[in-house]
Amino acid sequence: MNNSIAELITERIDTMPPGERNAAQTLIANYPLLGLKTVAEFSTQAGVSSPTILRFINRLGFQNYPDFQARLQEELAAQLQSPHNRNESQQVQQDTTYPALEYTLENIRETFRHISEKQLSDIVRALATARGNIYLIGGRFTDPVAQYMAAHMTVIRPHVFHISGQESAWRDRLLDMGKKDMLIVFDIRRYQESLLHLAETAKSRGVEILLITDQWLSPIARFARHVLAARTGVPSAWDSSAALFVLSESIIREMTRQPEQNTAARIKELEELRLKNRV
Question: Do the record's keywords include Transmembrane helix (predicted)?
Fold first, then answer.
């Protein structure tokens, strides 16, 4: 599988000069549709010159702007594939020489190859030092990952809440969200409109958004302060959440090591409470 343009940006953004970095950040916030516009439109929205846009796409490894756009069009088509489409494709092209386990392991390897230590460190630091509440939510198939992460994070620090239940109840939780809070959203293709609306409204209330998505990027990226992309594609009708779980565990592990958390004392007190109540 080719690297997505979002993955290429994550790999190389730290080496980009300011103008190209602006182009990269603007594209991520409007992914992938901004890249399908003309160079002039892209440059105007990014606030940089057209030659800067061309240097930016050259840095990503593309010889010219049409090649860059062709890759984005392929990604857009992949975003829109349904399980039915993928299942039909797999029936035509069955690959029995590369076991499913290998695809899963490759997804995990590629996920972490495209996430820099600085990016992960900045996110862990933001979560560890958040002064308000941390809310977690996922979509139809990713909410178990959100619930799993929330269960661990609750042991590490106070004021962690998993948002569950009917979508109508999600909006009620917005009433308690404010500028000191963070919202972690898991959203992979086919992206969930209700999660987009939730993130947009939370952003308007000053909530800091962490999006954990796939290599094609949920549209929630336009509202997110932090974006982590995990590989989810496998030769199946269904996407794989394995890399999402491993990425969540990595964040939990690094949060546990943060001195602000005083994790050892918190875990000790929790164990004492469990013992006292014979849990």
Answer: no
- Contacts by 166-175, CB closer than 8 A, 24 or more apart: 167/194, 170/137, 170/194, 170/198, 171/198, 171/201, 173/135, 174/198, 174/201, 174/202, 174/205
| Ranges of H-type helices in the chain | 5-12, 18-29, 39-46, 50-59, 65-79, 83-92, 100-113, 117-129, 143-156, 167-174, 193-204, 242-256, 263-276
Is 2 or 96 the better-scoring residue by pLDDT? 2
Distance CA 43, CA 41 (A): 5
Cβ atoms 254, 157 nearer than 8 A: no
Q: Which two tokens stand for residue 110?
A: 């590629």
Eight-state DSSP code of residue 2: P
Q: Is 190 exposed, middle or buried (0-12, 13-18, 19+ CB in 10 A)?
A: middle
pLDDT tens digits for range 190-224: 899 999 999 999 999 999 999 999 999 999 999 99
pTM assigned to the model: 0.84
